[in-house]
Amino acid sequence: MADVAIVGGGPAGLSAALFTAKNDLDTVVFDTDETWMHKAHLYNYLGIDSVDGTEFMEQSREQVADFGADVRVGEEVTAVEDAGDAFVVTTDDSEYDVRYVVFATGTDTELLDGLGVEFTDDDLVDVDLSMETSVDGAYATGAMVRDQEWQAVISAGDGGAAALDILSNEKGEQYHDFDVPDDA
After folding, report:
1. CB atoms < 10 A from the CB of 91, how many?
2. Which one of 22, 123, 137, 158 has the minimum C-beta count within 10 Å?
3. Coil, helix or strand for 138?
4. At what angle do helices 11-22 and 53-66 cross, to 10 degrees?
5. Which residue would you say has higher pLDDT here, 66 or 177?
6. In total, how many domains does the chain have?
7. pTM of whole model > 0.85?
8. At 38, is the pLDDT very low, low, confident or very high (cuts 50, 70, 90)?
9. Are 91 and 5 in contact (CB under 8 A)?
10. d(CA 60, CA 49)
11. What's 11's domain CATH number?
C-alpha cells in the first residue's frame, strides 16, 4: 500500500509529491499531462526569471522523481473510493490502495463526487486551511477550491499545505519541512 496518491501532475500535485516523497512517504503521482501549464510562460513565479510552462513541468517532474516519487505520466485515474481505512485508486491500468489522496485536477471535480466530499454554494470543493476535504485523508487543491484564482504559485502552495498536513498526521505533531545548508 502506498502512503499517498496524487491525482494530477501540475504545480499543486507535484508540490504535494515533492514534500511527501522528500520526507520518505511512498508517493505515486498520476499525471495525464493535460495541465494548463503547457499553455503558460512563467514570469510571475517566485525564483524564476522566465521559463516555458512545458519546460517548467519537465523540470518539476524530474525533481519530484529524484526525491523518490513514482511519477506515472499517462496513467489516468478513473475512480477513487473510500474503503474506510484506505482509499482505492483505480486507473486504466490497475488498482492501488493508499492512505491519503490529493486531488490536483484543476477544475475537474468528477472523481470527488463519489466520495461524499462537501461543496460550497459556489460549487467549489470545501476544504480547511490544510486543503483537507470533509472526507478524512482526502485533499483538494488549486482551481477546484478557488474561484478564478488559477495561478501556478497559488496551486503549488495548496499542494504544499496538503503535504505538510499529511506529514503532520504521520509524525503525530505539527511538521515543518525546513532545510538547512547541512541538508543540501
Report:
1. 18
2. 123
3. strand
4. 20
5. 66
6. 1
7. yes
8. low
9. no
10. 16
11. 3.50.50.60
Give helix 152-171 / helix 11-22 axis angle, nearest 10°: 30
d(CA 117, CA 127): 9
Counts of helices then strands in the chain (DSSP H, E): 4, 9
Q: What span, in angstroms and rounded, lies between the C-alpha atoms of 156 and 161?
A: 9
CA–CA gap between residue 35 and residue 93 (Å, rounded)? 21
Q: Residue written as cell 508517493?
A: 27
Q: By C-alpha distance, which of 39, 11, 12 is closest to 139?
A: 12
d(CA 164, CA 141): 13
> Structural domain of residue 52, as residue ranges?
2-183
Give start and end residues of each alpha helix (H) in the chain. 11-22, 53-66, 110-113, 152-171
The gap between the terminal CA atoms of the chain, to the nearest Å, is 30
Mean pLDDT of the 115-122 span: 94
Residue the block writes with cell 460550497: 120
Going by the DSSP 8-state scheme, the letter that residue 142 receives in this structure is G
Which whole number is the average pLDDT over 144-173?
88
The dihedrals phi and psi of 102, each to the nearest 5 degrees, come to -115, 120
Residue with cell 490536483: 104
The amino acid that residue 15 corresponds to is: S
**How far apart (Å, rounded) are the C-alpha atoms in residues 93 and 133?**
27
Single-letter code of the amino acid located at 70: D
